[in-house]
Amino acid sequence: MNKIEDQKKAALQAVSNSSSIEELEALKIQYIGKEGIFKLILRDLGGLPPEQKREVGATANSATQAVTNAIILQKGALEAEHLTKRLERERVDLSLPSATRPKGGVHPTMQVMDEMIAIFADMGFEVAEGPDIEDDFHNFTALNFPEKHPAREMHDTFFFHPNEGGVRKLLRTHTSPVQIRTMISGKPPFRLIVPGRVFRNNSDQTHTPMFHQIEGLVIDKTIHMGHLKWVFDTFIARFFETDKVITQFRPHHFPFTEPSAEMDVRYTRNGNELKIGDGDKWMEILGSGMVHPNVLTACGIDPNEYQGFAFGMGVDRLAMLKYGVPDLRDMFAADTRWLNHYGFSGFSAPNSVSGLS
Ligand code: PHE
User: Fold this and answer.
1) Residues within 6 Å of ligand 1 by CB
2) Mean local confidence (pLDDT), 47-72
3) Ranges 50-59, 107-116, 179-188: which has the least confidence
4) Which of 295, 150, 127, 318 is CA-nearest to residue 232?
5) CATH entry 3.30.930.10 includes domain 108-342
6) Which sequence spans correspond to the domains of the chain?
7) Residue 286 pairs with which residues in a beta bridge?
8) pTM score, two decimals?
9) How far is the CA of 165 from the centre of ligand 1 (A)?
């Protein structure tokens, strides 16, 4: 009897001192398992007189019960403590700034393209795209460049080697071939912009062999150059976030527009700072004109029914002007230090509600 009480005391003490689930499992086996101490005592009851047998049996059973309960309670306590410790250990303070600053950012050219898309989308323009590798038809012929015309050479075209059939593919020299592709595959009216990469074999301080353009095309029954001027003035005002915009058309020549004009915008230079929209100097920003009847005809559109304007702008130059990037070649040097300085956050997409940049 006393032996049982002693064992029970020792068991309860060990259980309450146990500090892990594994330890508790071992105690469970030691005391109340199939081969546990209390089971062995009960097994040895055989030789005792019946009176004593009952008493010892009852004591052993109640000791088993008491130890079982203690184990269950201790197990619950240990599990709760384990969870609390784990939560404490794995706590993440979301208010802390991240330890490493993300490298790089959105390239100013891509930022400016997104800004342009946001502005033109507000005016109801769709975005169209085309391939970088073009053929002669889409890049030149359908755009009314006569065969052997020097303008084809003026574009400093990168040609591929001719294929077995003698056909030479080329890297598109402007985004205008996408005018052709969309007019051939769709039906007027059209109101679209084409942001994209273009290529010319030309490299110096102000030219890189790859750069970016954004093309515009509006075709309907009564579109005229007044619409072009309004679109351009509105675009410049919103893009440079200024109310005062003074622009002018200057006669020019493109084979695919008639009449053709370059558009200039007034600006002033104050030391290194450039102010667009107002001032006493003219800066050329885009090439434009009314789409040539030959181009409409090449795309299966009746020039007696439809007319419209097209324009093309250099995106990288506008990015440099807006964000004060001094050298064009740095734009494509793929230097993360440069991108850290001039890049934009990928989490703030330009839009007309919360602002462009
Ligand atoms: N494609 C012309 C260029 O690259 C620009 C342009 C586009 C001019 C559309 C007129 C109309 O120089």
Assistant:
1) 174, 176, 215, 254, 257, 287-289, 310-312
2) 85
3) 50-59
4) 318
5) yes
6) 2-89, 108-342
7) 263, 313
8) 0.71
9) 30
